[in-house]
Amino acid sequence: MKNILYKAFAIAALSISLISCSNDDSENISGNGKITLKFDNAFGANDLILNTQGNTTSNNEVLKISLVKYIVSNVVFTKADGSTYVYPKSKSYFIADEATAAGQQFQLSDIPAGDYTKVKFGIGVDEEQWKLGAAGQGDFLAQADDAGMMWSWAAGYKFFALEGNFTSPTVTAATPFMIHTGKTGTDYNYTEVTLDLPTKALVRTDITPAIHIITDLSKVIDGPNKIKLSDNNMGGMGAMIMGGANLPIITQNINTMFRVDHVHND
User: Of 56, 216, 239, 253, which cross-links 223 as Cys (Cβ 3.0–4.6 Å)?
Assistant: First the structure.
């Protein structure tokens, strides 16, 4: 009987100890850390290669892409408990650029330590921030201008830019195309994307998670809304989509082109 009671007390003590350790671990998650967002451009199942790779759409148009740029903004992280951390908007502007190493990953600092399960970000600059001018975007106005991501200082930002050459069954010679989104007329064309993380991003003072995001550029014109470059070909100018009815539905397509491939907790 004494042995049974001893074992029972020992099990109870061990259980309390484990619970206490678990609580201590939870309570010890404090301080700030960093998160890296990595944007990996692809076309369908293939990693994107600029200028030489032929990328075929469901409309049998073949694109050779020479330029991919888009503004990433308004980053928000969601913790496992459902609470959110809004990265300061004044610091939350980045230009993803396939042509440069600096344009493929961005490190965000001073993130409260915790276990994060979602990330949300905008493509473009939201209208409220644009109306604030330099007070809302700081030095980013000049940075975007230098990167060619402004229509003009007065007209606003280009949110997304995709350029290159294409051929199709009806356009047999390599022909330029440009797809630029942003504010046109009454359409603002800003969109926000929310992505679940396949594994938690464990932000600690000594752990900097990297969230690896795949951007499937095929969905820009071959997503839920199908766009034919051939239908937008303007003779000697090529296919120039920078306004009109196509831009809002391309913005809808852009909203579907991101997914998280994996998270590194290093």
Answer: 253
